[in-house]
């Protein structure tokens, strides 16, 4: 027994530390595609090279070009003694009004347009399996001057289950790519200490991350009726797990505290995290000087599905910048990011749509007059960067569409974003500037990269648009990337040879979960290859794909359309005379997968539009319900089942209000058609503007409806095994 324990401990200790894969540019696009096709848990980024190596073999046959591109990037990160990385140089021209402030690039650590260009160099050092270092230095524009950036310069110590990172490591706590609510890469990286699991723990892929950082100096820390100079502290943590390989759930918390004369003990920070309404929301019992700091929290989810031969990922990230009604279970000032990602539309094309919307007051705080920012840039989502004055609050809404076409030697990406800002002048007595006149903003980006030589890659990009504050900008850039490691040429030659004999085939048929593979079974035979087309490479080197096969219970995604009608009742907490009710028309679309072999329980997501016609149409409005977790249970042998959901309800017209919502109900089965009954409950923590009931009025919105659920795609409509 002692020998067994000794061996187990030694194996754990010898696993060593791991460096992290890039989270921007074409490398990030490839990582997103890998995660969606293999069920790799990647709710937060950056992802360790060790975790990517675990899942990479699952696409070696189904997507060899992606396999080889990622393998080539992993080489320097995994080199036993270290490796030279890359040298990047870029020159650019900009056309903008010289009187306007420099345009800040989204999710670029505060970099701005302008100047003649930029330069960056990377290298990696690995003197011991448990000690690795990433070195990254760049010269780029921030504001009106050039300065050095050291993003992703850090030392990694420890093991897979407990790795310590010291330095300027990136942190991204969200499954979204257009922005992260709790923590992203929009602001300058301050030195930090991070303890995390480089690989998920246990069979349910449990992951964790603890973060501490000293932010940059600011002179806007409020204490005892005066502003002070100091460096605020930042503590954050995240936890995520995968109850099923295709589903990952996570929770994130960040707290900004101390700085200057504000002294906060570790015990008070813990109290504020556990009981924010008691220790971190000033009221008659807690003064502003006694409040611990500024907190941001979010919960997120990512789920992989497939309809026919088309895989896709649905994800969301919902955060709160405050508690509602001084209760931790009510989200104050909700902000949500919802997205859908198609990693394989054809052989090399991917498509992503992302929608972000939040209420006013985000990232602002009366203690830290700069807000939840570092050197002037938001630590979370960049869509609130338009709000640069303390006390002047805005709400924001963004749509983003992104298309990527990637081959072994070239890639093209196109992105288009629209941003709408709604201002709330006079909502805060501390407003220091007059209201800004906003209009809808839009921006587009086109990037093309191609390999010029075995170790040289070129690129050209165009970026242009208009901000909501009426700032016009455009920029064109030309860049070159040199692989400093001579082994990169060998890797490219190997990939070119492999590319001539193997082509992409039906990744949509892959499902490691159905074949019995979980995230920890990465060392055994890959079940992925049992359910995808396998190439028969003949003497000529060409691939002859076998017919696509779908193992029973593998193509098990179900897509349903729901139609119904019912009633909505508004129950005002403090003003019962304002209560009223409305008729509802419900149209919804949901997608789900089974939670077990029997298929009796299914888990998925669902979106619904609920129209509430008014009298004569003058006071009509609509609701948007997003059930982020939708569970159904239909036991065998009986014609009925049950359903429950948790998610978000948005009043979309004539006001903009967001709140958490819960629903439950039952259904009766008539073959594939379900007759459903649903009851939904929501507590809104803001005033109901159309009635003019004033600040602080809360109301419960209860709705019920009866309808039918019709299958658009079911497992039985998938192709049968041949």
Topology:
Elements: H1 2-13, H2 25-38, H3 49-55, H4 64-78, E1 82-96, E2 117-128, E3 131-142, E4 145-149, E5 154-159, E6 162-167, E7 192-196, E8 207-214, E9 218-223, E10 226-230, E11 233-244, E12 247-257, H5 266-274, H6 276-279, E13 293-307, E14 310-324, E15 327-345, E16 349-358, E17 373-374, E18 377-378, E19 393-406, E20 410-424, E21 441-453, E22 456-466, E23 472-483, H7 487-499, E24 535-537, E25 543-545, E26 558-572, E27 580-594, E28 601-612, E29 621-633, E30 640-653, E31 657-670, E32 673-684, E33 699-713
Antiparallel strand pairs: 1-2, 1-23, 2-3, 3-4, 3-5, 5-6, 6-7, 7-8, 8-11, 9-10, 11-12, 12-13, 13-14, 14-15, 15-16, 16-19, 17-18, 19-20, 20-21, 21-22, 22-23, 24-25, 26-27, 26-33, 27-28, 28-29, 29-30, 30-31, 31-32, 32-33
At a glance:
10% of the residues lie in helices and 48% in strands. With 722 residues, it is mostly beta strands.
Question: What key phrases describe this protein's structure?
Answer:
722 residues, mainly beta, 18-stranded antiparallel β-barrel, 8-stranded antiparallel barrel, 48% strand, disordered C terminus
Helix content: 10-25%
Q: Which structural category do the helix and sheet elements fall into?
A: mainly beta
- Rg, Cα atoms, Å: 26 Å
Please indicate the percent range of residues in DSSP E strands (runs of 2 or more): over 45%
Number of strands: 33
Give the CA-CA distance, first to last residue: 49 Å
- What quaternary form is this? single chain
- Helical stretch count? 7
**General form:** globular
Largest sheet: 18 strands, antiparallel, barrel
Q: List low-confidence stretches.
A: 498-554, 687-695, 718-722
Name the average pLDDT: 80
């Amino acid at each position: 027994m002692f020998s067994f324990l000794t061996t187990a401990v030694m194996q754990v200790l010898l696993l060593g530390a791991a460096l992290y894969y890039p989270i921007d540019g074409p490398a990030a696009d490839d990582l997103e595609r890998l995660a969606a096709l293999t069920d790799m848990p990647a709710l937060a980024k950056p992802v360790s090279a060790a975790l990517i190596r675990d899942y990479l073999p699952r696409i070696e046959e189904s997507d060899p070009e992606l396999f080889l591109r990622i393998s080539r990037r992993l080489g320097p990160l995994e080199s036993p003694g270290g490796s030279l990385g890359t040298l990047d140089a870029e020159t650019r021209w900009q056309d903008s009004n010289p009187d306007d402030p420099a345009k800040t690039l989204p999710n670029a650590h505060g970099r701005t347009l302008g100047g003649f260009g930029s330069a960056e160099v990377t290298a990696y050092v690995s003197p011991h399996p448990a000690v690795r270092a990433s070195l990254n230095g760049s010269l780029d524009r921030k504001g009106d001057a050039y300065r050095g950036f050291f993003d992703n310069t850090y030392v990694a110590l420890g093991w897979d289950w407990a790795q310590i990172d010291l330095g300027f490591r990136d942190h991204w706590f969200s499954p979204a790519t257009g922005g992260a609510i709790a923590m992203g890469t929009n602001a300058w990286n301050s030195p930090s200490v991070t303890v995390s699991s480089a690989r998920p723990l246990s069979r349910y892929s449990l992951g964790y991350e603890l973060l501490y950082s000293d932010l940059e100096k600011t002179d806007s820390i409020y204490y005892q009726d005066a502003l002070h100079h100091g460096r605020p502290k930042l503590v954050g943590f995240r936890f995520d797990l995968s109850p099923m390989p295709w589903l990952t759930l996570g929770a994130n918390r960040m707290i900004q505290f101390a700085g200057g004369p504000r002294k906060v003990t570790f015990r008070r920070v813990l109290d504020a995290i556990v009981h924010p309404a008691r220790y971190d929301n000033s009221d008659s019992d807690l003064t502003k000087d006694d409040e611990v700091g500024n907190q941001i929290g979010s919960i997120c989810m990512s789920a992989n599905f497939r309809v026919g031969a088309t895989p896709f990922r649905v994800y969301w990230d919902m955060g709160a910048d405050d508690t509602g009604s001084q209760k931790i279970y009510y989200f104050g000032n909700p902000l949500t990011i919802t997205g859908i990602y198609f990693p394989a539309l054809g052989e090399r094309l991917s498509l992503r749509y992302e929608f972000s919307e939040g209420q006013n007051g985000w990232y602002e705080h009366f203690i830290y007059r700069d807000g939840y920012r570092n050197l002037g840039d938001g630590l979370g989502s960049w869509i609130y960067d338009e709000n640069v004055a303390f006390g002047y609050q805005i709400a924001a809404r963004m749509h983003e569409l992104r298309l990527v076409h990637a081959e072994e030697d070239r890639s093209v990406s196109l992105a288009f974003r629209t941003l709408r800002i709604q201002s709330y002048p006079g909502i805060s007595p501390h407003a220091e500037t007059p209201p800004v006149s906003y209009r809808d903003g839009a921006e587009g980006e086109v990037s093309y990269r191609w390999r010029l030589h075995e170790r040289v890659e070129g690129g050209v990009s165009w970026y242009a648009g208009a901000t909501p504050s009426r700032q016009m900008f455009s920029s064109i850039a030309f860049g070159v990337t040199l692989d400093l490691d001579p082994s990169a040429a060998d890797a490219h030659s190997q990939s070119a040879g492999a590319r001539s004999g193997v082509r992409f085939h039906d990744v949509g048929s892959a499902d490691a979960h159905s074949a019995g593979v979980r995230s920890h079974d990465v060392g055994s035979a890959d079940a992925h290859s049992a359910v995808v087309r396998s190439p028969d490479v003949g003497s000529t080197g060409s691939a002859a794909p076998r017919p696509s096969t779908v193992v029973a219970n593998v193509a098990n995604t179900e897509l349903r359309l729901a139609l119904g009608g019912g009633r909505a009742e508004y129950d005002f907490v403090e003003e019962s005379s304002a209560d009223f009710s409305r008729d509802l028309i419900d149209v919804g679309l949901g997608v789900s997968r089974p939670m077990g072999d029997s298929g009796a329980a299914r888990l998925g997501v669902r979106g619904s539009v609920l129209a509430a016609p008014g009298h004569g149409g003058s006071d009509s409005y609509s609701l948007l319900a997003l059930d982020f977790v939708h569970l159904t249970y239909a036991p065998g042998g009986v014609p009925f089942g049950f359903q429950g959901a948790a998610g978000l309800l948005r009043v979309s017209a004539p006001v903009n209000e967001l709140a958490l919502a819960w629903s439950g109900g039952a259904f009766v089965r008539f073959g594939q058609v379900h007759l459903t009954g649903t009851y939904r409950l929501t507590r809104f923590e803001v005033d109901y503007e159309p009635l003019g009931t004033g600040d602080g009025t809360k109301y419960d919105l209860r709705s019920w409806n009866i309808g039918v659920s019709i299958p658009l795609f079911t497992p039985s409509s998938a192709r049968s095994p041949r």
